[in-house]
Structure formats: structure tokens, C-alpha cells
């Protein structure tokens, strides 16, 4: 999904509910929201998905996926279907990723 971003705490955390106290959890969620709003400011989206995925068997660290759903995506291609790489990926160059990162940084700096 164009504009998909991951947000992860700097410290190693495995479980969003048990490993963070309420204040740390709320700080993390404020950061996730701030980044999601920046993504929405620079990437056209019908809806923005926020997911925390992973397990102790793989990806044993807390991270949030911020994934903007492109406008006009047919319903049967939304939700988990849109997130699963088995259904195809949109090729992005390093330059496209760098351009997006620059636009996100600009929005985040303007709203700091």
C-alpha cells in the first residue's frame, strides 16, 4: 500500500498491553496517531488502517502498521486483503520512498 509506515518504540517491547504501563502506552498511541495524520496529509486515502501485528514466534517486537487505503479500492480488496502481500505489492523505488519520507518529515515538522 503506497504510504505504509511502521512505528516502533526504540526500546524492545513485545506486548502492547502487558509490557507498557498506561502512560507509556498512551504516549506510543499519540505518536502512532501523529504519524497517521501526517500520512493522511500526504497520501490520498479512503481510510487509514492501524494494526499491531507480530508474535513471539516471529516479529517478536511491538510495532504498528499505518496503512492508507487508496481511494476507490473495491470493497473485496480492502481490509486484510489489502494488507496481504500474497495479493500483490506495489513496486516502489528507493527514490519514491525517500520522497515520501521527506514529505512526512515536512508535515511532522510543521505540526511539532
What does this protein structure show overall?
The structure is a single chain. The chain has 112 residues and is α+β, with helices and mostly antiparallel strands. It has a single domain, classed as 2-Layer Sandwich (HIT family, subunit A), CATH 3.30.428. Helices cover 38% and strands 13% of the residues. The chain is built from 3 helices and 3 strands. The chain has helices spanning 22-42, 80-83, 94-110; strands spanning 5-7, 47-52, 64-69. It has a 3-stranded antiparallel beta sheet with strand order 1-3-2, with helices on one face. Helix 1 (22-42) packs across helix 3. It is globular and about 40 Å long.
What's the gist of this structure?
By secondary structure, the chain is an alpha+beta fold.
Question: Secondary-structure blueprint of this entry?
Answer:
Elements: E1 5-7, H1 22-42, E2 47-52, E3 64-69, H2 80-83, H3 94-110
Antiparallel strand pairs: 1-3, 2-3
Mass-distribution shape: globular
Radius of gyration over C-alpha positions, nearest whole angstrom: 15 Å
Stretches where pLDDT falls below 50 for ≥5 residues?
A: none
Give the total of domains: 1
What is the H-and-E element order?
A: EHEEHH
Strand adjacency order, main sheet: 1-3-2
Q: Please, what is the CATH homologous superfamily?
A: HIT-like
Task: Give me the secondary-structure category.
Answer: alpha+beta
**Alpha plus pi helix count:** 3
For the record, the CATH architecture stands as 2-Layer Sandwich
Beta fraction? 5-15%
Amino acid at each position: 500500500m503506497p504510504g505504509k509506515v511502521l512505528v516502533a518504540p526504540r526500546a524492545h517491547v513485545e506486548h502492547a498491553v502487558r509490557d507498557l504501563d498506561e502512560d507509556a502506552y498512551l504516549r506510543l498511541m499519540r505518536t502512532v496517531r501523529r504519524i497517521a495524520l501526517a500520512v493522511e496529509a500526504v497520501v490520498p486515502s479512503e481510510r487509514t488502517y492501524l494494526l499491531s501485528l507480530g508474535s513471539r514466534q516471529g516479529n517478536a517486537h511491538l510495532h504498528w502498521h499505518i496503512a492508507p487505503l487508496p481511494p476507490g479500492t473495491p470493497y473485496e480488496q480492502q481490509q486484510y486483503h489489502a494488507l496481504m502481500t500474497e495479493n500483490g505489492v506495489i513496486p516502489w523505488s528507493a527514490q519514491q520512498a525517500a520522497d515520501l519520507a521527506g514529505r512526512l518529515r515536512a508535515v511532522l515538522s510543521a505540526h511539532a
